Amino acid sequence: MKIDTVKESNFNTLSLKKGDSSISNNGISNYVLDSYAILVYFQGEEKGSDFVRSLFEKASEGECALYLCVINLGEVLYIIEKKMGLQSAQLALSRIKAIPLEIIIADEEITLQAAHIKANFTISYADCFAASVCIAKNALLVTGDPDFKLLRNIININWI
User: Fold this and answer.
1) What residue ranges in 13-146 does DSSP mark as E strands?
2) 25-159 fold
3) Model-level pTM?
4) How far apart are CA 36 and CA 127, in angstroms?
5) Rounded-to-integer distance, Cα 122 and Cα 97, Å
6) Interatomic CA distance for residues 121 and 73, integer angstroms
7) Which of 22, 125, 130, 136 could cysteine-pair with 34, CB 3.0–4.6 Å?
8) Where is pLDDT greater, at 19 or 101?
9) Of 9, 8, 30, 2, which Cα lies nearest the Cα of 101?
């Protein structure tokens, strides 16, 4: 995935055990977005952008709950700043804050679960936090990052 181009229109829009479903107790679907999903959305042309946009629309209507770990938020912002500058990263942050999603703080439970995942799988530490939130929220991970294939037996993944 290239991050060199970001569509301006998308800035302006809005224990290791696999869970049985992505349905929360209140009956709506739960999704965790990793950095890949957010970056694909901002680029607008990558495969998966339309799906991510549809999730934002569903979340606005109360049809699903969206989560993003603060660690993965930081990952998105450093990638954008590195490739496009601080101003672009600040703009991205303001757009992310306007999206109907909950930023999950990496508390002790999330961090310990992420550490356990990292100890057992060769994926990035940031990816471990997204997986940990999936476990905590009994949610589907939305990603196109092939590294998550290693976790397909412990989390549910919606590939974009």
Assistant:
1) 29-33, 64-69, 102-104, 140-143
2) Rossmann fold (3.40.50)
3) 0.85
4) 10
5) 31
6) 22
7) 130
8) 101
9) 30
Q: Is 16 exposed, middle or buried (0-12, 13-18, 19+ CB in 10 A)?
A: middle
Name which of 121, 126, 122, 123 is nearest 110 in CA terms.
126
Residue 11: φ, ψ to 5°: -70, -25
**Residue 17 and residue 30: Cα distance in Å, rounded?**
17
Query: What count of residues does the chain have?
Result: 160
Q: How many CB atoms lie within 10 A of CB 37?
A: 27
Task: Convert 65-102 to b/e letters by CB count within 10 Å (16 or more is b).
Answer: bbbbbebbbebbbebbbeebeeebbebbeebbeebbbe
Contact yes or no for 115/96 (Cβ under 8 A): no
